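::Encoded backbone::
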Amino acid sequence: MTIFRDDPFSPALDTPLYQQLYTHMRTAILSGELKGGMKLPSTRALADELGVSRNTILNAYEQLLAEGYLESVEGSGTFVARVLPDLLLTTTPGHRRVSTDTRRAESRPPLFSERARLQLAAPQMSPSLPPSSKGVPRPFSFGMPALDAFPYELWSRLVVRQARRMPDSAFTYQDAAGYRPLREAIAAHVTLSRRVHCTPEQIVIVSGAQGALDLASRMLLNAGDPVWMEDPGYFGARGALLGAGAQIIPVPVDNEGLVVADGIARAPHARLVYITPSHQFPLGVTMSLARRLALLDWAKRAEAYILEDDYDSEYRFAGRPLAALQGLDDAERVIYIGTFSKVLFPALRLGYLILPPPLVEAFLTVRRLMDVHTPMLEQAVLTDFIAEGHFRRHLRRMRTLYAERRAALLEAVRELPLEIHSPEAGIHCIGWLPDGMDDLALARRAAAHGLNLWPVSSFSIKPSSTRKGLVLGYGEYSVKAIKDGVRRLAAAMRSV
């Protein structure tokens, strides 16, 4: 069976053959040349047809499977996915009238780097539906804090005060690691609240968790390096890792978190692991102590690094927040990522890395070549917000508020045919659907009812890796909005 009219390989390129084949196949799938549901040749047959090693085909297939362009059916083979991630997760641009000259120019595609092409090919999160005509956000988007309860007046006073007293020296280039008083405040906070072991010298202020992921991937990965990733998992992290040319190794998640034994079986010499152990995204499970110790032991033996994304662990409604994985690390293998996007507001764009001491100087050298440092005013304001006790008070208020909103959601959905998994943490839960209900069809129908739902399958690397379910965010919505949203969800489920 011949699936390519042309040779997909160009000997003039330095790009690895499997990445050339991956790019060629993805283009053929998106153009319709390889149609949804079409069965592909076996890796051995295609390797013979193209005159390359079987590993080349395996690597290309695995990348396409990981990104949702192909589906593997046990006992039947590999098929082109009928529903493509680009259709689910991106917004289709509108058509434009263009002149003949413009069309001729647009027929020559831009020559992006291999890194950029990999990131363009990664699943993307499309923008949420716009607010309703009354300016109210549409339930049940995830990852958004309660902006209606943020102390805007207090924050504004801190901004004005800092802007007035900021010295001339604050207007020149600054330390690439970030504003030292902020790093000192963060070190004190995470030492007490998250049982992280660090000094201010180990902290690097970056532009949110995404900036941390990009810098760590840039520093630690070569093209083709295997990286474990939770499946399902956060595809913002997947995009950053793919941008570094990583070979994503999907590792399943059960009720104890990442299945470490499966990761070792699939890629025992992986270079990196991305993990959300305190509140797994999106499933919400907490990694058990036994799994944490097993992961740390493997990383030490394999000389691998662990990226611990602690994105919303401040919000635990029963007992103290769980200790971070970093606090158990005695071999300097864990890189801790924190962010203020989920606890304050996303537009702040301030996050941080806590690095093992041997990595600090090299990370800062490369950081200076990227964006030098983050803006000073926001760092100084955040420092005051933490140092004066406003941050801790805000966290206490938000824990109470989110517990109320979580309770309202759980009460409202009791009559729906949903199996709810809602640990006492975070600002979202999972609603598992009845057997046979199509999560994608329900998400589309819900949009017509003014809801913004995300299927769990949108975050899966292997299409069949999880049950059908929905991610239901509640942090951003009042009790009244939650109850109204559940009524509309019930109507959408009836129509499906």
User: Anything to note?
Assistant: The CA atoms of residues 86 and 435 lie 26 Å apart. The radius of gyration is 24 Å.
